[in-house]
């Protein structure tokens, strides 16, 4: 028997993702710039800090997934973590953007430790928050709608920061003021913590965990014996670079190519229009076409929408913003369809192995997201190094051309490369219906 999820509960989940993505986007967009241009950390060194910390943190994600899969409480498997972790990550965010005005060595130590702590606490929130979508209902349609609303909420959170982040900084002194970043981090941290906490309080887990105890070794089989999951994760590792690269390079791009940090607001508007339209267009498409075909088509068209503005010239700001919106439209499509495919791999795991392993599946997805983010920062750091970037330097044709290449051609290549692994994804619509039918029969016994 399928279960319906109340609209209020869906809205609360969407709000939790909105707050979480406000936090993540603020960190992704501004931490590197804060390190290089406010704290005076060399670009290469700052990139190394972010990459090493992100990789270390990402390696802890599967462990967090297995911990949540073993969690049993009156609150459920995932909700308990949403009741305390949000306030800790808000505090860590504030520390990350706090200029302690110490020596260069002390600044490096504080930056490294605080960012590492932030990433670990983010995992404690992120894995349970997304895994909640797999136990909210037994109805695939409800889960897809739940995830879609969550992704829309997350996109709105990213947009709030993309559009309003620079305005918040300007209100507190501008992008060259350390106090502006600190005050902004306090406000965003509080909003995020409260929204995630409310998700933990007001949602309900409706798919009961299996009474059979699963060992850590067996739980790992959810990943390495799940071919559809492995191919999907490989594709996500690549396609996540599209937004990861753009988030990290965006402020540099609008400052040094378009000459005004305020243009970040216009880019944010392009993002919200494109991503939301792409997300809303995806569920109807999935009712007519296979998920695999929708994913591949969105990658092809996404790549094309990145290539065109580079060769047509990106100094026409209005035209470039339109192409941004189009490329974000296809990013929105890949976001929804890939998450829907991820839920299918959990059903596949239960069908093939006898246990779902929601926690480790979503934590592995978080691992891939973070590893992709680390690669994005590594790419940005290497690019800035190759361009001989120095903080607050004059804009030169060489720097502008280099930033345009990173902003457009690299995402285009990522879109295309993401198609290769997904060609081996083998859950088709017929098999998915059979899996759901078999699972419904098994659960009724």
Automatic annotation (TrEMBL):
Do you know which InterPro entries this protein is assigned to? MFS_2, MFS_trans_sf, Na/Gal_symport, Na/Gal_symport_CS
**What broad class describes the main subcellular location of this protein?**
membrane
TM spans (from-to): 12-33, 39-60, 81-100, 145-169, 181-203, 229-249, 261-282, 294-312, 318-346, 402-425
User: Per UniProt, which keywords does this protein have?
Assistant: Cell membrane, Membrane, Symport, Transmembrane, Transmembrane helix, Transport
Q: Name one Pfam family in it.
A: MFS_2
Q: Name one GO biological process term.
A: carbohydrate transport
Might you report a single GO cellular component term?
Answer: plasma membrane
| Ranges in coiled-coil conformation | none
> Where, per UniProt, does this protein localize?
Cell membrane
Q: Which NCBIfam families match?
A: gph (TIGR00792)
Q: What is this protein called?
A: Glycoside transporter
| Source organism (scientific name) | Paenibacillus borealis
What's the source species' lineage? Bacteria, Bacillati, Bacillota, Bacilli, Bacillales
């Amino acid at each position: 028997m399928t279960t319906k999820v109340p609209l209020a509960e869906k809205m609360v989940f969407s709000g939790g993702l909105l707050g979480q993505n406000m936090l993540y986007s603020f960190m992704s967009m501004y931490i590197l710039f804060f390190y290089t241009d406010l704290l005076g950390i060399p670009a290469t060194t700052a990139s190394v800090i972010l990459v090493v910390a992100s990789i270390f943190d990402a390696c802890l994600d599967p462990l967090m997934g297995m911990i949540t899969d073993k969690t049993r409480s009156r609150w459920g498997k995932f909700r308990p973590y949403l009741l305390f972790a949000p306030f800790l990550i808000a505090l860590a965010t504030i520390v990350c953007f706090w200029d302690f005005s110490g020596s260069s060595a002390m600044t490096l130590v504080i930056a490294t430790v605080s960012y590492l702590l932030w990433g670990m606490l983010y995992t404690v929130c992120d894995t349970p928050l997304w895994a909640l979508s797999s136990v909210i209902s037994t109805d695939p349609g409800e889960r897809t709608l739940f995830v879609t609303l969550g992704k829309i909420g997350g996109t709105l959170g990213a947009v709030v920061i993309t559009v309003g982040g620079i305005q918040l900084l300007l209100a507190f002194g501008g992008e060259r003021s350390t106090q502006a970043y600190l005050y902004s981090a306090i406000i965003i941290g509080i909003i995020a913590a409260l929204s995630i906490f409310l998700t933990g309080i007001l949602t309900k887990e409706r798919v009961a965990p299996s009474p059979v105890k699963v060992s850590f070794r067996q739980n790992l089989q959810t990943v390495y014996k799940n071919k559809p999951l492995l191919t999907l994760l490989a594709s996500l590792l690549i396609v996540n670079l599209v937004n990861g690269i753009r988030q990290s390079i965006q402020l540099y791009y609008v400052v040094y190519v378009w000459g005004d940090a305020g243009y970040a607001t216009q880019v944010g508007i392009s993002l919200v229009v494109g991503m939301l339209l792409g997300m809303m267009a995806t569920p109807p498409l999935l009712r007519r076409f296979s998920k695999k075909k929708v994913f591949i088509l969105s990658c092809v068209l996404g790549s094309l929408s990145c290539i065109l503005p580079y060769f047509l010239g990106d100094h026409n700001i209005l035209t470039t913003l339109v192409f941004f919106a189009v490329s974000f439209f296809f990013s929105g499509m890949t976001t929804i369809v890939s998450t829907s495919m991820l839920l299918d791999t959990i059903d596949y795991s239960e069908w093939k192995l006898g246990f779902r392993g929601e926690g480790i599946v979503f934590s592995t997805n978080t691992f891939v997201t973070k590893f992709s983010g680390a690669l994005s920062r590594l790419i940005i750091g290497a690019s800035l190094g190759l361009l001989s970037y120095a903080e607050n330097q004059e804009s030169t044709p060489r720097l502008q051309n280099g930033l345009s290449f990173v902003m457009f051609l690299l995402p285009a290549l990522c879109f295309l490369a993401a198609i290769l692994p997904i060609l081996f994804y083998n859950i088709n619509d017929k098999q998915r219906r059979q899996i759901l039918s078999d699972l419904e029969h098994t659960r009724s016994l």
